[in-house]
Structures are given as structure tokens and as C-alpha cells.
């Protein structure tokens, strides 16, 4: 097979082909969950994504030269903030999909390596996005589990291709299925009560997204920056990004699925943002809101749903390991029960982050997925 790799421009029509390749590659796969095409195009577009204030990128697709059939895609990304923060010269690869042909995967990775090297990079790492708000980590366990809207699904052969190209493990994330208990665990409730009184903490409730944004919109994402800063490869959100994500995500939340924890002064010290699972709805949309995709999304958000995704949990560093997570979940569990959720998906957690994983000690859990970032010198 004669293979050709072409750089794809950041124009909407070209990016749509780039995004559609992944959706088409997994057509009929019962575990793959597509992104919304328009959302992914916005993420990849320098005009739409505020991360381009400090990132640069390139997009490649591989084609069968004889037939023009697409065979793979990849993005190369340089995040200048994280490179400076960690004193590294990394080029990231992400948004990677390819058919099971080692010539294809080698050509795609090679194109990003060449692009990165020309810009002074000495290491390639991924799959990663522009920032931690993008899906990251290649699935290496849990291929028989449905994905979430915030994660990557890929075929098992991807990992083997990378290993044969000389990549080594950089870091792992694990994911948990957490059963929603019929009653709040007694020990958790007791700790939550002690912590609430000891630190004079409150859990304000909101019925208006507009009011939530006015009171704590900025504070939520600034707390995320503070809590996540020590984590692997974290790229702090700029004010422009914060404004973007507030506008994009907060209005669609079911507010009973959000928990805020504040000090007596009103300062935010903890937040849990959860969302009814959009996985099955996204599968039905095949990545498109029209003509009927919006209906499936709305039904998943507002109707009956068995699964809730734990999208973001952040606790102020000085309150971590003090039991504040127990207070957060004693507030959320009644809402989960009322909405009929059977289990929660944790989404990716760094395998070495014992502080986060210790919060599941009160629940019946199964570690059902693992994903990995890979690295090699170029």
C-alpha cells in the first residue's frame, strides 16, 4: 500500500474530516463514545480555543495514496506553559486514531516527531490534549467497558504499536465504578458531621445557574487550579479559559448534582461537579446534535439515567486528607438516590494519587479501566 501523510489545515471543513475519521473508525463499537463534532472542532480551532494563547498545534492525516481512503489521524501539540513549568521540551501527541497497520501509526508519530524537533522539542509524550480539560491517556485496560464523555476509547492494538515504536510508560490513570449506596455510610456521615462543625463549613444550595455563576463561577475554576496544580502535567487555566468553560458547562448542570463547600467567610474550599452520564446519548447522536441528537442529549441530562459521571472534585490543599470529601459525598448521595443513579463513574485519577482514591473506601467499588501516557526521546 502506498501511504501519504498530509497536514490538515485548521479550517472547519478540514477539521470536520479529521474528527469524523475517529467516529467512522469505531462505527458499530458498543463501547466507543464519540465527542460532539462541533465541540471537538472548537477545541482544535485556534480561533475558538483559549488554550492557543500558550499552545501551538499541527494536524496530520494518513491516506491510502491510490484510493484516497483515510487511514489515521494525529495532532501534535506544544504547551509552552507546562514546558516552562517543568523545564521540559515536550511535544504532545493527541487525538490519535489509526487502522491496525504499523506503517500508518509509524508515519503519523513520525510526522509529529519531525514537527516537534523542528521547534526544538526533544521528547514526545501522549496521548495528551492541550490541557487537562481535554481527554488524555490511552486505554490499556477496560476495553469491554463503555467510555465516558470525558475520556478516550481506543482499540487494544494501539498500545502494541506504540511499544514497537519505542515508547515507554510515562504515567497511569485508573478509573472506578462506584455503586451508589442505599443509605449514607455511617462512618462517612459521622466524619462529615465532625468536619462540618470543626471548621464551621457550609454547603450552599443553588436553584439558579446564573446565581451560581455570579457567586462562585470564577472561584470554582480557581480552586481547581489550586487543587490540581501538583498533578502530572497540569496546565493552569487562564482567566480566558475559565470564562470559556463557565459559559460552556455551568448552564447545562443539574444543580442538585453540584456540591459547594464554603468556610464561614464564604470562601470556597471544596467543589464536586457531577453530570448524568451522556455516554449512551452521545452514541446515538454519532457526534451530531442535528437533526435529532439534541433530543438524546436533553433526555440524558434531564430524564431517567442510571449512571452519574464524577466530572470534577477539588478540595483546597490545606483541607485535603481532613475528611472534607466525606462532607461532599454526604451532600451528593441523597441527590444521586433521588435521581435513581445506580453507580457513578470516577473518570481518570492518577494511579499514585492516594488522597483521591482514599475517598472511595466507604463505597462498593470496582477498578474497571486503566489508561496510560507514553513517552520517548526524539
Keywords:
378 residues, 36% helix
**Strand content of the residues, in percent?**
25-35%
Share of helix, binned: 25-40%
The average pLDDT value, as a whole number, equals 95
For the largest beta-sheet, the strand count, sense and barrel status come to: 13 strands, mixed
So what's the overall shape? globular
Low-confidence stretches: none
Order of helices and strands: EHHEEHEHEEHEHHHEEHHEHEEHE
Structural class: alpha+beta
What's the total helix number? 12
Distance between the termini: 27 Å
Rg, Å, rounded: 21 Å
User: What is the number of beta strands?
Assistant: 13
Explain what you see.
The protein contains twelve helices and 13 strands. The protein is of the alpha+beta class and 378 residues long. Strands 1, 2, 3, 4, 5, 6, 7, 8, 9, 10, 11, 12 and 13 form a 13-stranded mixed sheet that branches. Strand 10 (307-315), helix 11 and strand 11 form a beta-alpha-beta unit.
